[in-house]
Each structure stands twice: as structure tokens, then as C-alpha cells.
Amino acid sequence: MTEKPAPGPRQTILDEMNDRTREVFRRVVEGYLDTGGPVGSRSLTRTMSEKVSAATVRNVMSDLEYLGLLDSPHVSAGRIPTELGLRMFVDGLLEVGELGEEDRARLDETLGSNSGRDTGALLDRIGSALSGVTEGASLVLAPKHEAPIKHIDFVALGPDRALTVLVFADGHVENRLFTPPLGQTPSSLREAANFLNAMAEGKTLRELRARLEQEIARNRRHLDDLAAALVESGLAVWDGPENGPERLIVRGRSKLLGGGTAAEEDLERIRSLFDDLERKRDIAEFLELAEDGQGVRIFIGSENKLFSLSGSSLVVSPYMNADRKIVGAVGVIGPTRLNYGRIVPIVDYTAQLVGRLLSDQA
């Protein structure tokens, strides 16, 4: 279900821990994920499998802090896991539960309301259902249009704005706004379009991008730098309308912002997170993150390149169409103290559900 990490220094540290150290580390992380607050040595002594003193537990916690796995938010407030500690826990100690029958039933209700062939409405319902089940914020990246390309054109709209017009073989037309490189001219626009049209026919946009990288490297001397930059930026950047063929669906903002127990700084991080999402920053990277592996992936804090802030986690899984090609992704975002053991199977099942629904529509 989840992608297995490659052996590395983190796993080595975990393997070298003795049973007591491993248990202290696990209980601190689980306590933090459960309460959101620091875990003290006295509370641990009451739950340890062996009888140990609070002083012994404090020494172990100090060692774990030295290794960068725990941190002390205040002098006498106990310990919380660092991002590195959470990463190690997720990779080596996380116990993923089974999908609950109630959660499964709530997600399956989406199937019952699947009338018509409106993919956008379907994915919107999926996002709402996922947010409702997890009590968090859900993300759904809708599929791109994958028909072969018939023609490409570039239209200048101003000194810092241009339009890519994509005409597909099935008659579908997309308009993509982008910022062209400085110094672009009408001739460079035509040259870039001619360069693309010579290789585009019969290829999907994804296939064209792969071919494009090879051709630009091979023909750089024949294609001036300005036209090459225009070609690259014109196809790599999408800034289309909200109801376009590829869009990011965000559901559950109020659930994250409405929690009365969250600290003010946590709320500010979440507000910044949604500001990023609503501006659609790096929308394509969301799918690229998922494409690195077919299972559920967990990104903790600053590991998550999609967002500009640290302090949030993303649990994401790709979904496939009837041809077993990855065409989109679903995920859940929230504070780093997400209940990963419960969220992972929910995201995994939702991705499978979306893939099945899209296949049924094909």
C-alpha cells in the first residue's frame, strides 16, 4: 500500500536502537500524534512495557534529541518529534490499519450518486467525501486531456503574457496562459510553434514533452535560446480557468481552520497553505510527486515541495485510467500530527475508487 523506503542512514539508526530506546521513541511520537502536545518522561513511565524510572526515560529522550529525532519546545515541557523523527517513525514503525467499514461505506456512496459522465462533478464529490471521512482537507487533481495533439500555436497578449492554443485530434481545444521569456518577438513565437508542430501530430501532451526535452538538447544550435525557452515555458506552465480540463479541487478548508485546540501559529500555517493552494502554485508538481511511485506516499513538513511552508503533511496517491496510466492524484493535507495509520488506507482506497469510476466511464 505505502511505498517502501530504500535502506539508508535513518533505517540504520532505527535498527541500532535497543528495545527500550525504540519503545520510548515510538511512544513519544504516538503520544504527539494523539494529543498534539509534548510527551513527558513521567507519563511514559506509566505506559512502558518494563518498569523504568523517569530519570532513565529522560536520559533516553536526551539521546534521541541528540540524534535529531526529538525536540524540546520548552525547557520542562517534555519532547515532541522532529520532522526527521516523524519521517523515521513513518518509514519504520508506523502500523497502518485496515480501512474501517464505516469509512468504506461513506466513500462508496460516491458510486451510488455517479450519474452521467461529468468527470468534474464526480471528482468534486470524491473530494468532499474524502474531506468528510478524514475530517481534514482533501486534494484531487483532475485528469489531463490525453488525446493526440493536432496543432499548436502561440499568441502574444502583451510583453509579459502569451497564450498557448492546443488543438487536439478529437476536436478539443485548450488555451493555456503563460509568461514568455523576456525579449520574445512575433518571429520567435512562429519559430517555436513550427518547431513543435513538426513533432506534435499524433502525440499526447505528455509524449510531446518527453520528445521535446530530447529535441531541444539535440537541436539547441539550430533553435536559438529564446525560442527554446519559449517552447519549454509555453508547454510547462498551466494557468487555466477553474473549470478547465486539469484542475486542483480543494475541500475541507473550514475543517482545518475551525479546530479550537490548534495553536494560533498552526492556524497561520494552515492559512498560508490554503493561500498557496488557491493560487494553484506548482499544480503540475502535485501529480509528479505521486508519479514517483504507485503506492501511497507521505510527505512531512519541508519534504513537501508543493507548498511554500513547513509544518504540514501530505498523504497522496495517484489514480489510473482504464489503460493503467497515472492521470491524476488524490490526497489529504494537514498538520504533521495527522493520524497516518488511519489516513493512509483511506487515501489508498479513494485512489482505487476514482480509478474504477473513471474506467467505468471510459
TrEMBL record:
GO biological process annotation, one example: negative regulation of DNA-templated transcription
Gene that produces this protein: hrcA
Protein name: Heat-inducible transcription repressor HrcA
Domain Heat-inducible transcription repressor HrcA C-terminal: 122-344
GO molecular function annotation: DNA binding
InterPro entries listed in its UniProt record: GAF-like_dom_sf (IPR029016), HrcA (IPR002571), HrcA_C (IPR021153), WH-like_DNA-bd_sf (IPR036388), WH_DNA-bd_sf (IPR036390), WHTH_transcript_rep_HrcA_IDD (IPR023120)
Taxon lineage: Bacteria, Pseudomonadati, Pseudomonadota, Alphaproteobacteria, Rhodobacterales
Keywords: Repressor, Stress response, Transcription, Transcription regulation
Superkingdom classification of source: Bacteria
Family to which the UniProt record says this protein belongs: Belongs to the HrcA family.
Function: Negative regulator of class I heat shock genes (grpE-dnaK-dnaJ and groELS operons). Prevents heat-shock induction of these operons.
